[in-house]
Amino acid sequence: MNLRIKAPRIREMIVTPIAITDPPLLNAAGLHAPYALRTIVELITDDNISGVSEIPGNVSINESLELARHLIIGRSPVQLSSIGRELENYFGRETAAQRGDTPWDQRKLVHVFSAIEVACLDIIGKITGLPVVDLLGGKMRERVPFAAYLFYKYKGAGGEMGFNIDEQANQWSAARQVAALDPEGIVHQAKAMCAAFGFRSIKLKGGVFDPARETAAIFALRDAFGEYVPLRIDPNALWTVETSIHYGRKMEGIIEYLEDPTRGQKNMSIVRQALKTPLATNMCTTSFEDIPGSVAVGAEDIILSDHHFWGGLRASMELSKICTTFGRHLSMHSNSHLGISLAAMVHLGAALPYLPYDLDTHYPWQSDEVVSSGRFHFEDGAVTVPSAPGLGVELDKQALTRLHQQYLDCGLTKRDDETEMQKVVPGWKFESVRW
Ligand SMILES: O=C([O-])C(=O)C[C@H](O)[C@@H](O)C(=O)[O-]
Ligand SMILES: [Mg+2]
User: Where is each Mandelate racemase/muconate lactonizing enzyme C-terminal domain found (predicted)?
Assistant: First the structure.
């Protein structure tokens, strides 16, 4: 019996930039624009198997994908290591410093590789009949739990067409549009989001108002939800070391972890030594190159990985081993995203050996979808791992065309929260440290 499966070759790569409606969410770098940009990559093999992926959208990443095209076409989707090496040789090494100071990651190559890898894994899954989670080492859990991700926000739902309703989104669509600018607004948002999606832990995006006001919101959440709902706050490194220690001490015993209170591994390590609360990061340790520094100073307790930023799902599995070796926990960061990214996050979340914290997701803030099965359903805050081969999602070509048109119409080419904020507060400037 010959069980050998012949791997096909990639014959086509379709790169489609899309714009998805995004509400006016506030963060350390300013304000979300009415649309968030994503890029959908579809790889098609010579025997017509197609694999998909989704990454943050940005013209320079899209240009890099185009430049990488000749390294992808004709290759077998199983040759991930050699494709990765060739991309690195072609573009040159990307340094950790290229990540930049914003809450999001400004690198290109990690995104390019993540896009290619996830689409190839989707293809390999379809060829072998296995879900991606099985290609990553197999399922450690059936359902992957997420946290409610709260934002200070202005009134509105983003985009022009408002909200595409499904039952779950409908339940919270009214609250989703309401402004939240104080502790009461944040508690209202949390109750609505948790009621609709069943989340069992809560993250507040901070770095928007002064730390006393944001800490008050955490105390208001604690009063509203009690001690059994874990809370976290993420000021995206805008606090000084002194501010971080001061407010970190106030929230000691109230939050499960403090995320990126201050900038840089050294500062994080000073804060970490002063507090009993664990520190998490998606800003100071964001690449393999950062690991030696992190270990040397003890920068954090939890690394919030993101397969889009760490170069794919397999890289994130490698990171999990490193985390175990050096006494870190691994959890997950997110950005505004649709169902292809969510599917990839769920497969990864299901395969990770340890998952002590509920993962981040922006998904409740999004109203568009690009997968044909419609929006993902959360039960008790968790998503069941898709069991179909590959990622378990199919592209909705009509939705893709509509969201691409939305991209062309909206005129945005990259994320720029500072410019968006200036439309509301003239002269507003991003500062890398504010309080
Ligand atoms: O945990 C984080 O730092 C994020 O989720 C980064 C995002 O870019 C967030 O700040 C946002 O969506 O505004
Ligand atoms: Mg963060």
Answer: 183-278
